[in-house]
């Protein structure tokens, strides 16, 4: 069954106070994508027809006993039949003519029908774009864009994870100097190396210097830590997130109350990328990066490509071109995911160029820009990743994107 509703706002403002004679308007396309006994899935696209929106919430009332059980690309709340979905960190800004999309699954005891109406940021959607006139509370100024993370260059400390020798931590040496709480990246190594992380030290130091805390699998000195290597153990990455949560509250920790556990990502190289893709199913994860990796068609290592349907957050797939042994896997995984995704390819990088080769700086810059776009909604980072004049214009990169 498929149904769509197209509506537009006509009242005072979409977000807070607008400038004089600001135009407001939107279209909401609500489609029931699939149904099954006792439930259904829906996709929703919000198109902004008026002035740019920075932060949105879409509300509606179900006509029956529908109850949302899972959502992606937005956060939902529900009281009775009333539902509100708010933007994720990465899709809160909608330019004029731009769109934001999300989806959800819901339980329903009866046949569901599309809601009769929507409201965007408290304004009813009715079908036209309307000048609003002057509103109070404006300052006549705009907030400058936040500094892109990639422009940071903090000194980095590499240290053993407190109380858990399964991990090495890469972090800004002085977390207080960063100016904001720090996002967390749990990283899996190539070959699923769970004791020795020397191969990725340079790449992860680069990421940490941009204001991230990276928790990597492997003891800081390569000593045995009781974890076998060679096969993916995704729980190592979810345990790394739990370690960060404990460190956030540990008295005396240099990271105490300095972490932002609402901005968490997983990433990994080669076999570690498999760990990252599976660990990204964790509800705490808001972004995932697969470097020269991907789940195999034959279910090698115990994980089939059906796992990709469980992803709920944006994904970046990077490969080093036809000489990369993960080239076909990367393409196939990108094609299969239904979340917002980017495929970035550098044909000179091969399988390890992003980690140890001449393409390390370019590759890790791309990772940082993607995370900045997704976790913080930084517009400069978004332009770098998605604009034709960004990464796609840098020879010899090729870039594809979908569902943004």
Automatic annotation (TrEMBL):
It comes from Saccharothrix yanglingensis. Residues 19-128 form the CBM2 domain. Residues 127-149 are annotated as: Disordered. PROSITE patterns: CBM2 (PS51173), CBM2_A (PS00561). Pfam families: CBM_2, PETase. SUPFAM superfamilies: alpha/beta-Hydrolases (SSF53474), Carbohydrate-binding domain (SSF49384). Residues 1-22 form the signal peptide. Residues 127-144 have a biased composition (Low complexity). Keywords: Carbohydrate metabolism, Glycosidase, Hydrolase, Polysaccharide degradation, Signal. PANTHER family: CARBOXYLESTERASE TYPE B DOMAIN-CONTAINING PROTEIN, CHLOROPHYLLASE-2, CHLOROPLASTIC. This is CBM2 domain-containing protein.
């Amino acid at each position: 069954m498929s149904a769509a509703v197209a509506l537009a706002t006509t009242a005072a403002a979409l977000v807070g106070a607008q400038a004089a004679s600001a135009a407001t308007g939107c279209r909401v396309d609500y489609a029931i994508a699939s149904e099954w006994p006792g439930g259904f899935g829906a996709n929703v696209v919000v198109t902004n027809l008026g002035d740019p929106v920075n932060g949105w919430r879409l509300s509606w009332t179900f006509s029956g006993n529908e109850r949302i059980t899972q959502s992606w690309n937005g956060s939902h709340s529900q009281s009775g039949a009333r539902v509100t979905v708010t933007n994720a960190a990465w899709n809160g800004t909608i330019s004029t003519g731009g769109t934001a999309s999300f989806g959800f699954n819901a339980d329903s005891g009866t046949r569901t029908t599309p809601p009769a109406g929507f409201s965007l940021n408290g304004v009813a959607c009715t079908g036209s774009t309307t000048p609003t006139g002057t509103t109070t509370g404006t300052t006549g100024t705009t907030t400058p864009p936040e500094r892109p993370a990639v422009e940071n260059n903090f000194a980095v400390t590499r240290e053993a994870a407190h109380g858990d020798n399964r991990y090495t931590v890469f972090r800004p040496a002085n977390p207080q100097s960063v100016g904001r709480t720090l996002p967390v990246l749990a990283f899996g190594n190539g070959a699923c190396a769970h004791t020795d992380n020397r191969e990725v030290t340079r790449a992860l130091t680069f990421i940490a210097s941009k204001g991230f805390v990276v928790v990597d699998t492997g003891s800081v000195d390569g000593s045995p830590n009781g974890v076998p290597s060679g096969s993916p153990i995704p729980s190592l990455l979810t345990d790394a997130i739990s370690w960060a949560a404990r460190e956030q509250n540990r008295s005396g920790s240099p990271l105490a109350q300095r972490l932002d556990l609402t901005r968490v990502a997983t990433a990994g190289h080669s076999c570690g990328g498999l760990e990252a893709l599976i660990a990204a199913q964790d509800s705490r994860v808001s972004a995932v990066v697969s470097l020269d990796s991907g789940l195999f068609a034959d279910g090698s290592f115990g994980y089939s490509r059906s796992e990709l349907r469980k992803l709920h957050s944006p994904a970046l797939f990077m490969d080093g071109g036809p000489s990369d042994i993960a080239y076909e896997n990367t393409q196939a995984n990108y094609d299969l995911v239904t979340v917002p995704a980017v495929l970035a390819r550098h044909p000179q990088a091969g399988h390890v160029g992003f980690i140890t080769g001449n393409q390390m700086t370019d590759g890790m810059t791309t990772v940082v820009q993607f995370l900045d776009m997704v976790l913080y909604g930084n517009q400069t980072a978004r332009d770098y990743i998605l604009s034709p004049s960004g990464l796609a214009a840098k020879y010899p990169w090729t870039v594809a994107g979908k569902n943004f």
